[in-house]
Amino acid sequence: METVIEETSGPVRHWWIVLLEALLFIAAGFIFFFYPFESYTISFLTINIVVSVLLVVIGVLEIAFAFTTRNIFGSWVWGCVLGILTLILGLILIFNPQISELVLPYILAIWILIEGISMIGTSINMKDSKQGGWMWVCLGGILVILLGIIIIFNFELATLTFVYWVGFSFLFAGITDAFVSYKLYKAKKFIKKTTVVEGAQT
């Protein structure tokens, strides 16, 4: 029992990493919906700046969380790879601001698809570890994947409403991550309570 608690305490102790990632996603989503863009050119430049910085920060957070879960989640390597890819993509956008308006939607769509797949992987981990609510996380991943597909295969429509599609994707990802962080926080409280009870019994 003590071994299980020790292995599980790492991921749940760092629940705030997932929460911080969720808040960044949600904040970016609201920015894309409510920022008073004056023209598509200005909105594109703003998107490039916001997204590039966001991807760098999220990439670092995903790498950090992957390492904290390496002893309990079998898919931590996938999470680490996703974090590295996200970090690299963010750096590419930062150092190549001249990336055209035609290329950026495809880059983001591919990243959104990968993020959705990662969310489904997280739901599988939750199911395997007997965590409730894994179906909601899986549903969130499916919705994010669908939004990525819409951007890729309905490019003309996506171009006209690009800001909103990205905003929807970030909001769904943020809400899902917030739910995951809440489940980790509850697990942390349970482990703490269990540890106290076992300590009192010894």
UniProtKB/TrEMBL annotation:
One Pfam family, short name: DUF308
GO cellular component, one term: plasma membrane
Keywords per UniProt: Membrane, Transmembrane, Transmembrane helix
TM region(s), chain numbering: 15-35, 41-64, 76-96, 102-121, 133-155, 161-185
UniProt protein name: HdeD family acid-resistance protein
